[in-house]
């Protein structure tokens, strides 16, 4: 299956190559981000880099990518679940999530990992000061993005975590899957319990990608609710606009999560975790 992505070429001695693979829209946004915000970090580390568009046939050309110097792939929607079939070894967090967003090549084997959960937690906790322990959390959507974040969120011991979806079946499957990890429940969008005061609402649907209006109940939002969209864009996403109009205390897009999960992926590849603060300072992540 053809996968469009962006290729970063590092001009250090080892000439290592890393790439981003995903939808055209997301890769174009990431190219704009990393060519500007990432310039300072590359300069500080002595790296010179550039991005170019390429087409990667994942199933047939993975080996070719490795032979040309490829060291790692960062995978985004809609390929995270499909890529789990390509790996020789998978990390515990990726196996639990059922989704891979980071590939690395070691000793002739393909290793799959998932840095979405830790990226989200670092953004919420370190960058935004959101407390997860004891919080009531509502996640909107039950796809691959939700799979990657439920486990890490539950490990932070929230008071409750609801997964809402258009159809109850998919949400219930996830709730059952993570039931031993913490207090997780499932419901449809139109029956989200509004008697609960939600401290954190996370949008994990594709509404931000495709631009449609999110069909979420405004009654779930209070003046103390922190709303976080896993999607991001150069202007406020429909979810962030909805959250702000519904009276949320804060409405934030997922640029910070993008940077933090990318830093974690880079650490997997290179054994060095980049300082994300300078990058985040150059970005407007709040709607």
Structure characterization notes:
- The chain has 287 residues and is α/β, with parallel strands linked by helices.
- The strands form two sheets. Strands 3-1-2-4-6-7-5 form a seven-stranded mixed β-sheet, sandwiched between helices. Strands 10-9-8-11-12-13 form a six-stranded parallel β-sheet, with helices on both faces.
- The two termini are 35 Å apart.
- The protein has two domains: 2-114, Rossmann fold (3-Layer(aba) Sandwich), CATH 3.40.50; 117-256, Rossmann fold (3-Layer(aba) Sandwich).
- The chain contains eleven helices and 13 strands.
- Helix 5 (116-127) crosses helix 6 (144-155) and helix 5 packs across helix 10 (255-270).
In summary, what is this structure?
With 287 residues, the protein is of the alpha/beta class. Helices cover 36% and strands 24% of the residues.
């Amino acid at each position: 299956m053809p996968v469009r992505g962006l290729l970063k070429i590092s001009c250090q001695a080892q000439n290592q190559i890393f790439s981003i693979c995903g939808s055209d829209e997301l890769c174009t946004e990431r190219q704009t981000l990393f060519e500007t915000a990432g310039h300072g970090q590359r300069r500080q580390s002595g790296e010179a880099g550039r991005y170019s568009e390429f087409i990667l046939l994942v199933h047939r050309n993975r080996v070719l990518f490795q032979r040309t110097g490829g060291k790692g792939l960062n995978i985004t929607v809609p390929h995270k679940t499909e890529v789990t079939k390509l790996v020789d070894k998978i990390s515990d967090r990726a196996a639990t999530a059922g989704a891979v967003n980071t590939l690395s090549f070691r000793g002739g084997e393909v290793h799959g990992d998932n840095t979405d959960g830790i990226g989200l937690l670092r953004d919420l906790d370190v960058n935004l000061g959101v407390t997860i322990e004891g919080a009531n959390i509502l996640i909107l959507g039950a796809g691959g993005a939700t799979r990657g974040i439920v486990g890490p969120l539950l490990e932070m011991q929230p008071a409750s975590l609801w997964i809402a979806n258009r159809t109850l079946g998919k949400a219930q499957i996830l709730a059952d899957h993570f039931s031993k990890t913490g207090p997780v429940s499932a419901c449809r969008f139109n029956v989200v319990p509004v008697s609960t005061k939600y401290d954190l609402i996370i949008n994990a649907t594709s509404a931000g990608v495709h631009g449609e209006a999110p069909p979420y109940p405004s009654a779930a939002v209070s003046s103390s609710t922190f709303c976080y969209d896993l999607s991001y864009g150069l202007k406020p996403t429909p979810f962030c606009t909805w959250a702000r109009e519904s009276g949320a205390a804060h409405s934030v897009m997922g640029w910070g999560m993008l940077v933090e999960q990318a830093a974690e992926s880079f650490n997997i590849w290179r054994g060095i975790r980049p300082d994300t603060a300078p990058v985040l300072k150059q970005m407007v992540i709040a709607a």
